[in-house]
Amino acid sequence: MRKIILTTLIMVISMTVFAQTRAGAYICDKSGTPTNVRNAPNGKVVHQLSDVDGGYVVSLIEVKNNWWKIEPVVWVYGDDEEDIQLKGSNTGYWLHYSVLQFDIAGDPTDVLRATPSPKGKPLKLGATYLFEVGLRPLEIRGEWIKVMTSDKRYTGWMPIDRICDNPLTTCP
């Protein structure tokens, strides 16, 4: 009995320690061609997300050299709301950061920081500017995500819980 309790306790602790913080993003691919989902960073194309009336939202798992591993279920929003189950890869599904975007939920004042900490120096960019450009995900560190503005002018850190991955709303 002790062995079962100890094994269960170790499993719970290790799941807590190794749990990854996840973030969401929507596809913002301005290439005019379907968005390629690959089986590895810069790997083989295993799925293409074509233009729909609305768009796609994905869950980000981890990043490797500017490529984000995503969950195999993609949410379609707009008139064609449904889930797409990605298939064709045993090694995961990957998107380049340049086709991913999200916004800031709520008031964007002082959300972006120079370092991943509430005590980090706030980047003074202006609320209007942050509402006009989207943010691209670069890296996750704990409960913080490093972002770059879609126009590539600014880079900073923000709390993951301030992500708005729905382009149809401002997220409260």
Mean pLDDT score, rounded?
85
Strand count: 14
Q: Please write the string of helix (H) and strand (E) elements.
A: HEEEEEEEEEEHEEEE
Assembly category: single chain
Q: Looking at the structure, what is the overall shape?
A: globular
Helix content: 10-25%
Biggest pleated sheet? 7 strands, antiparallel
User: What Rg do the Cα atoms give?
Assistant: 18 Å
Strand content: 35-45%
Structure annotation, total helices:
2
List keywords for this structure.
seven-stranded antiparallel β-sheet; 2 helices; single chain; 172 residues; globular; mainly beta; three-stranded antiparallel β-sheet
List the helices and strands and how they pair.
Blueprint: H1 2-18, E1 23-27, E2 35-38, E3 45-49, E4 54-64, E5 67-70, E6 73-78, E7 82-85, E8 93-96, E9 100-101, E10 103-104, H2 127-132, E11 135-141, E12 144-149, E13 155-159, E14 163-164
Antiparallel strand pairs: 1-4, 1-9, 2-3, 4-5, 4-6, 5-8, 6-7, 10-14, 11-12, 12-13
